[in-house]
């Protein structure tokens, strides 16, 4: 795979964000303090009015939660969106999110002589963003590239998905996998682990029976997460396009296929269920709300 020229970053294959967005919108780079981490104390009333949802930044996040698509055929543009408008949005987006490939030489220079490890996201990085998460298949070309890089550096994939799901797509046993936003980490045992492994790691075996390190710091929350999954599934079932995803240590509510005028309803239903689970956190991804037990740890031990 030619990293410099031929690979169209899957980051840019998202659908056009809502037309309600201003021309120079900026996808938030940091989360609003009151909105994204809903460590909801039981007695504190949750936002009930649309204005409060908007004020907390949630609605704006939901509307702006995917980058604009770079090359979108005019045929598929909504009737009131001009190609120029789309280009402008894309260029504005690129100001905040420049491609690392444009600075490849500089990055290579900075890395020289350093001990490197590679941390990769899965969705939108190794696979294209698609409407149905079950279809986010990784290409053989991408798999070969990841296999190659993993032969050079310790390589980890960090994902909001369950670890099993990511592994089922990637199928490379030589990698570290951090699923459920870091709540479920598995990795090869390295020869350098002479002084034993991390205190919370256990030795386990992977799908091929190979010994691995396993780190699952949120196991005690599994019954609660399962309950939240059931309650949320029931709560959003009448919202057209809303989709639940069970990611084992966290729960995702997808609204990629929900009409923008129903985003507020999605948010209200999610927060209403969560008010009974004050120890759970609510975070936000691309057209997805995520419930998990801890702040993500991403504790990869190489
Ligand atoms: O932290 P991440 O690894 O980026 O996980 C965030 C979510 O990724 C997946 O959803 C995203 O990709 C889907 C397939 O392309 C897309 O349909 C969805 O809109 C995106 O948000 C995954 O399915 C979720 O469980 C993760 O929470």
UniProtKB/TrEMBL annotation:
Keyword rRNA-binding: no
A GO biological process held by the record: trehalose biosynthetic process
Domain of life: Eukaryota
InterPro entries listed in its UniProt record: HAD-like_sf, HAD_sf, OTSB-like, Trehalose_PPase
TM segment ranges: none
Keywords: Hydrolase, Stress response
Catalyzed reactions per annotation: alpha,alpha-trehalose 6-phosphate + H2O = alpha,alpha-trehalose + phosphate
Necessary cofactors: a divalent metal cation
Biological function: Removes the phosphate from trehalose 6-phosphate to produce free trehalose. Trehalose accumulation in plant may improve abiotic stress tolerance.
Family, as annotated: Belongs to the trehalose phosphatase family.
Name of the molecule in the record: Trehalose 6-phosphate phosphatase
UniProt organism field: Triticum urartu (Red wild einkorn)
């Amino acid at each position: 795979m030619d990293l410099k020229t031929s690979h169209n970053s899957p980051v840019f294959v998202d659908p056009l964000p809502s037309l309600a967005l201003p021309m120079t919108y900026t996808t938030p780079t940091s989360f609003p303090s009151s909105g994204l981490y809903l460590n909801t104390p039981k007695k504190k009333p949750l936002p009930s009015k649309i204005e409060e949802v908007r004020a907390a930044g949630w609605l704006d996040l939901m509307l702006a939660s995917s980058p604009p698509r770079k090359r979108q055929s005019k045929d598929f543009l909504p009737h009131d969106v001009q190609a120029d408008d789309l280009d402008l949005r894309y260029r504005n987006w690129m100001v905040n999110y420049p491609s690392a490939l444009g600075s490849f030489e500089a990055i290579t220079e900075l890395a020289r002589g350093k001990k490197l490890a590679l941390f990769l996201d899965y969705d939108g990085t190794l696979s294209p963003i698609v409407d149905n998460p079950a279809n986010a298949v990784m290409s053989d070309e991408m798999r070969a590239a990841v296999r190659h890089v993993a032969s050079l550096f310790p390589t980890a994939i960090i994902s909001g998905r369950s670890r099993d799901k990511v592994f089922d797509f990637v199928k490379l046993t030589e990698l570290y996998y951090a699923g459920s936003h870091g709540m479920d980490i598995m990795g090869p045992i390295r020869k350098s682990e002479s002084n034993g492994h991390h205190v919370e790691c256990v030795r386990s075996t992977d799908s091929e029976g190979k010994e691995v390190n396993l780190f699952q710091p949120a196991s005690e929350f599994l019954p609660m997460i399962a309950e939240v999954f059931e309650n949320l599934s029931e709560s959003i079932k009448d919202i057209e396009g809303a989709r639940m995803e069970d990611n084992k240590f966290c729960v995702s509510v997808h609204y990629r296929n929900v009409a923008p005028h129903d985003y507020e309803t999605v948010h209200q239903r999610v927060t209403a269920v969560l008010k009974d689970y004050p120890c759970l956190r609510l975070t936000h991804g691309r057209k997805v709300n995520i419930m998990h037990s801890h702040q993500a740890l991403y504790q990869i031990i190489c």
